[in-house]
UniProtKB/TrEMBL annotation:
<dbReference type="GO" id="GO:0043565">
    <property type="term" value="F:sequence-specific DNA binding"/>
</dbReference>
<dbReference type="InterPro" id="IPR050204">
    <property type="entry name" value="AraC_XylS_family_regulators"/>
</dbReference>
<feature type="domain" description="HTH araC/xylS-type">
    <location>
        <begin position="172"/>
        <end position="267"/>
    </location>
</feature>
<dbReference type="Pfam" id="PF22200">
    <property type="entry name" value="ExsA_N"/>
</dbReference>
<dbReference type="InterPro" id="IPR018060">
    <property type="entry name" value="HTH_AraC"/>
</dbReference>
<dbReference type="Pfam" id="PF12833">
    <property type="entry name" value="HTH_18"/>
</dbReference>
<dbReference type="InterPro" id="IPR009057">
    <property type="entry name" value="Homeodomain-like_sf"/>
</dbReference>
<protein>
    <submittedName>
        <fullName>AraC-like DNA-binding protein</fullName>
    </submittedName>
</protein>
<keyword id="KW-0804">Transcription</keyword>
<keyword id="KW-0805">Transcription regulation</keyword>
<dbReference type="GO" id="GO:0003700">
    <property type="term" value="F:DNA-binding transcription factor activity"/>
</dbReference>
<keyword id="KW-0238">DNA-binding</keyword>
<dbReference type="InterPro" id="IPR054015">
    <property type="entry name" value="ExsA-like_N"/>
</dbReference>
Length: 267
């Protein structure tokens, strides 16, 4: 059975699964606050990986790539609820509360929180909407989002440097970024935005940096890594093809034979 995601009101999403489920690569365009009700989420991103355990609250920053695997609890159910904190809501909140950041500040601390009384109670207050025993009006939905912002700032005032940083992603080192993120199977548009470029600027800078197109470079980079895993680490393609951004095994085998002129079994 596939994982089910359901939008309860505008920006509240409830995810449920009854067996291990591998999620697709995701480009996170907006901050979101999430709560692991049951089971675990294993999240993989450019800087490493993390396990979101039951009863953990997580603030996920915008403009990044994430891949997840969802594991049900021993009782056989996976449940995760998230609420989006998007730019319009955060800008309005900053305006009304006279919050202005005079300088950019990178927050290095982990963005995972133990479920304190206030944040736990907040997510429990969403239960009636998830269970469909209560329906949220647009006004009430807005209030719940604002409440989430209040509670985050109460838990750590320095989170204002995360929530109210409205600057556009600046142009970053393309070579370093692509070598860290090539395994994510997302669009060129997502890669362009994450590196602080328009699509045309991204393609132009990519050609200067790698002397090829993004599509060809990504394919070759993933296949070179596949060859290394097969020859040096003795891994089977079925165990890693998804990790390298291939959509299915037959596509991987075809691309591998096309590039190297041999099949994986001939190595």
């Amino acid at each position: 059975m596939e994982a089910k995601s359901e939008i309860i009101f505008d920006k509240l999403v409830y995810s449920c699964a009854f067996e291990k489920y591998r999620g697709h690569e995701e480009f996170i365009p907006e901050h979101f606050l999430g709560f692991q009700l049951s089971g675990e989420t294993h999240a993989f991103y450019a800087d490493g990986n993390v396990v979101i355990k039951e009863n953990t609250i997580v603030l996920v920053k915008k403009n990044q790539l994430i891949r997840t695997i969802k594991y049900p609890s021993k009782s056989g159910k996976y449940q995760f609820v998230s609420i989006t904190l998007d730019n319009p809501v955060l800008r309005q909140y900053a305006f009304e509360n006279k919050i202005a950041l005079r300088k950019h500040r990178e927050i290095k601390q982990k963005l995972f929180f133990e479920a304190d009384d206030f944040l736990s109670a907040y997510f429990l207050s969403l239960s009636p909407y998830i269970n469909k025993t209560k329906e949220a009006t647009p006004k009430l939905a807005e209030l719940k989002i604002r409440e989430a912002i209040e509670l985050l700032l109460q838990s750590d005032p320095d989170l204002k440097y995360v929530l109210f940083d409205f600057s556009e992603p600046y142009k970053i080192d393309l070579k370093e970024f692509m070598n860290q993120n090539y395994m994510f199977n997302v669009s060129v548009e997502a890669f362009a935005k994450l590196t602080g470029r328009s699509i045309s600027s991204f393609k132009r800078d990519f050609a200067k940096t790698f002397n090829t197109t993004p599509k060809k470079w990504l394919r070759d980079k993933r296949l070179d890594e596949a060859m290394y895993r097969i020859k040096q680490k003795k891994e089977k393609p079925a165990d890693f093809y998804l990790d390298l951004g291939f959509e299915n095994l037959s596509h991987f085998y075809y691309a591998f034979k096309q590039k190297f002129g041999i099949t994986t079994s001939e190595i």
